[in-house]
What we know:
The structure holds 2 protein chains of 2 kinds.
Chain A: H1 2-23, H2 37-52, H3 60-75, E1 112-116, E2 123-126, E3 132-135, E4 142-151, E5 157-164, E6 173-179, E7 190-194, H4 217-220, E8 249-255, E9 261-268, E10 271-278, E11 284-289, E12 295-298, E13 305-308, E14 312-316, E15 329-330, E16 341-342, E17 348-354, E18 357-363, E19 371-377, E20 387-388, E21 394-399, E22 402-407, E23 413-416, E24 428-430
Antiparallel strand pairs in A: 1-2, 1-24, 2-3, 4-5, 5-6, 6-7, 8-9, 9-10, 10-11, 12-13, 13-14, 14-15, 16-17, 17-18, 18-19, 20-21, 21-22, 22-23
Chain B: H1 6-28, H2 31-52, H3 58-76, H4 78-82, H5 98-113, H6 116-126, H7 132-139, H8 143-163
Helix pairs in contact in B: 1-2, 1-3, 2-3, 3-7, 6-8, 7-8
Amino acid sequence: MMTEKTTMADMEHRLRAAFEARTAGVPAPPEPDWDAAPASRTARLRTPRLRVRRPRLLLLPGLAAAAMAVLLVVGLGGRGGGGRGDGGGQADEPVLTVGAVTPVRPAASPTLLFRSDGVHPTRVVQAATGRTLGTVEPPAGYVQDWTGLTSATDNRTLFFTVKAKGGSASSPQYVARTRVDDKGHPGKAQLVARVPRSQNLPTTSPTPTTTPGSPSPKSVARVPGARGLPAVSLSPAPATTYPPSEWPRVTVLAPSPDATRLALAVSGHDGNDLVVRDLRTGKERAWSSRSGLDAISWSDDGRHVHWSTDTRVGDLDPQSKEDSLPAGRKVPATGDGLGAVLLPSGDRLTTLYRTGNVQIVLLPSDGGGARVLDEWKVVPRSLDLPAADATGKHIFYRRGDGWARLNLTTGKRTAFSLPADSTQRGVVYTW
Amino acid sequence: MEDLPADALSALFQSHARKLVHVAVLLVGDEGLAEEVVQEAYLGLHRRWKRKGPPENPEAYLRTSVVNGCRSALRRRQTARRARIPHPVPESAADAATLRREEQAEVLAALDRLSRRQREVLVLRFYLGLDDTEIGAALGVSRGTVSSTISRALRGMEDLLKGQR
C-alpha cells in the first residue's frame, strides 16, 4: 500500500515536471482587441437584418451589375461566378465534377494501402510487399490538407481533402477523388465536393457541455441566428484574433458502398453537421448534430449512414428530412482518446491499453459485450487506431513492432512487412 | 445593451490566458492551435457577456470552452490525431538536463496514449491544480468519475512508462 502511494506520488511529481517543462517556453497569446472583436461579430448578426428592411430598389443597380458580371464570365467560358471573397485562396470558383460516376463494386480483399505522413503526397503502397506503386497528386492548384483521406469499397477509388494552394487557414476545403488502376497508378484527381458554408447548413442546437457549477450549455453555445444570414465580413477584425471562419472543417469522409455518394462530418464555429452529397447530381443534404461526430460509415446496402459521438451512436436515413440528426442511443465511451472506427455493421472498433497490453476491441452495435480481437504487449509509440477498409471486413494496424491485417469475418491474422519508415511518427495507412 | 466588459475581460485575459494556452498545448500538442483555441474561448466569452451578462464563474466558463475547443480541434485534425501528436520538450542549455528532458518526453508520450478524458483530468489536476469538483465542472462529469479517472490514468501512466523501460 505504502509502495503504491509512493509510486503515485512519484508519478504526480513526474507529471508536474513534464507539464512545466513542456509549457515553460510557451508565451501568453496576444490579447484581443475587445472593442473591435465582439462588435464585428455583432455586426455579422445585425447588419443583414437591417439591410433586408431597406427598400429593395436600392439594391437593384448592384444586383444588375452583379448579374451582368456573372453573365460576362459565363459567356467567356469562365469557371464560375468570379471571386467568392471568402479567402479561398484563388479568385475563380472551381468547377466540381458532377455526374459520370460509375458505381464501384466492393473488392473481395483490399490489396492497396494509402500511406500519408502529413507532409508528402499520399503514396499508393502494395499491401503484400510494401512497395510504393504510385503517388497521389491533388488537382492542379490544390494541396492535400490531411484532414480526410479514405478509399471506397473497391480499394481503388480514393477521396481526400484538399485546399487551394496558398489559401489561408480559414479557406474552404474541397474533396478530391482519384481512381487507382490495377498497377497502382492514380489517375488525375478531380474536385467532387466543397465543404458547405456554415450559413447554408441547418441550425444547430447548443452543444451540451457542462455540469453544475460550470457555464450552462446555452451560454457555451454558438451565437444563435448566425446561420441563414448572408456573409458579412468581420471587419475591423483585430490583428491579434482569429475571426471565425465561414467554412466548417471536414472531420471525417465516408463514400457510399458504390462511391456515388459522399458523407462528410463537418465541424465549424456554428456547430457540427453531417452532409451527404450525391456525386451524380451534385445535390447535398445536411443534418445538424449536437455533438462533434467522431466517426461515420455507410451500411452495406447504402441505405443508412452510421454515426458516433463520444457517447452516442445512431443511424441516419439520407432520404429523411433535413433537420437534426436523430438522437441515437447512448453507449459507453470507448475509453480511448483516439475514439473509434465505425464499421458498416454499426459495430465500433477501438484500441485500448490494458496493463501493459494493447487490445483491439470490437464494441457491438447491439450493446452486447466488448470482444477482444487481438492483443499484444505494448511497444512504445505504437498505439494507433486500426484502419478498416470500406467493406468493414478487414483491418490493418500496427501490432507491436510490425504490422498486421485481420480478416474480421474469419478472424485470420496476417503479418505484414512494410519499409522501415512505416513506423515513423505521423505516418498513417488507410485502405 | 450593457457596455462591453473590456476591462473585466482584459483582467481575465491577463490572469488566465497564458495558463489556458498551456493547458491547450498539453491537450492538443500544437502551440498555434492552442493559442487559437484560447483566443476563441475568450471571444466566445465576450460574445456571451455582451448578450447575457457575465457567466456565474467566468474562469470555469473559459476552462470548459478551452477543453471543448481542444476536443473540436483534435477532431478536425483526424490524421494527426490518429498518428498521435508529438510533444517536444524544449531544449535546455544545460547538458546535465538531458536525462531529465528524456524522462519528461517519455512522460508526455505516455500521456498521449491515455484516453482523452484521462489526459484531460491529469492536465487539469496536475497542471492547473483543480479539485475534483472543478474538474468535473470543466469536463461535464461527476466528482466520482473524476476521482476514478485520475486513479486509472495514473495507473495507466505507470504501466506505460514501465513498458518503455
